[in-house]
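Sat 14:20. Reprocessing the chain from the morning session after the first attempt stalled halfway. Input below, unchanged.
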Amino acid sequence: MKNIFKDAHRHKLAERVQRLTPEAERRWGTMTAGQMICHIGDQIRVATGEIPSSSSSASGPYTWPGVKQLVIYVMPWPKGKIQTARSMLATKPDEFEADQEQFLQLMERFAEQGPEAMLTPHPLFGKLSTKDWGGLIARHIDYHLRQFGA
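Finished this time. Tokens:
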């Protein structure tokens, strides 16, 4: 399973992020490449608690252990039909290359915390293990990079 805490997986994602340009056209959804870079960074900021989220109100089937595992690791994610938590849209794009570099640094800082990192609950899934946060973040970044053909 891909995980942001595994060097090989993280480095491949970083290479793909570096190939992304502000002119990249989306294949689905409404975000620009710049908005997407900020969005995937905001997910990490929510995980670490840097951006507060409504995670204390997470309830329902997505908080059930089996459902979490299916959604995070197995089920295909719909293209452009996922409602995004406001907390993961907090950062507005500025200068693309600067936002891109800031994301890459954020991803490395996050990974340096290692699998023992203390992370906040997810707005939809509630409490996640660090392994599950790492898997979800890696899959989320991959999803959005594929959205822009990277």
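The radius of gyration is 14 Å.
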